[in-house]
Amino acid sequence: MKGFDFDFLKVSPTDIVDIILVALLIYYVYTLIRNTLAVNLLVGMFIITVFYWIVKALHMELLTAIIDKFMSVGIIALIVIFHPEIRRFLLLIGKNAFLQKNKAWWGYLFGRKEIERNNLTRIKPIIDACKSMKKTRTGALMVFVKFYDEQFFANSCELVDAKISKRLLESIFQKNSPLHDGAVVISENKIKSASCILPLTDNDQLPSQFGLRHRAGIGVSETTDAVAVIISEETGEISYAKQGRVRMNVSFGELEKLLNKDF
Questions:
Q1: pLDDT tens-digit profile of 189-203?
Q2: 139 to 153, 165, 210: CA distances (angstroms)
Q3: Pick the CATH number of 124-262 from 1.10.3720.10, 3.40.1700.10, 3.10.450.50, 3.30.1490.20
């Protein structure tokens, strides 16, 4: 009787490095598509693939031929569908963000309270500006993005690239300011740009009181990993948009927790 061959269990140092690199690649791809519509697209593609295996096993020739034609252009379809995510991935590499994110990851493990305290310090000017604008019923739209895509925002924004401050945010959204129309984009702890024109949502189930400001905030959260804080000019009510969904009448305590989690 022959024994089992366990040669396949032998792991060389090269194999370990290979596994680690693949794991890192999967992790960073996940961080790019997390909280975006790309996740739903991947789930849809997975369902189509499973369905293809089933109809092929059942010898359903017509359906198999149709899905086979669809899957034959899979690579091109992936490039087209995930074009924004691919651009962000290349941008991530170009800016050496891997090292920065690793530092943040280690800091999260060994200095979580310190990071949370620093993050709340950065968020405070935003909360203070929201309190002031809610009181005066100043309409505002602030968009928070993890990776600032210059090509996406360059055509419709005025570059600011300034430190976040309560007074600056209030000045931008003042009714007499030339930059008050449109959105402010915040990334990397800076106000990157102002007066940004954003794509509107196609969702026709939104409340009737939602104007262009709300629809733009929801629209950008549908197509990117951004979150949006919207202050109504009519009521002063604060809304929070993420993944195409909107939370209305958000309190300042809730806003602080949400930004601390997502920003």
A1: 889 989 888 888 877
A2: 21, 17, 12
A3: 3.40.1700.10
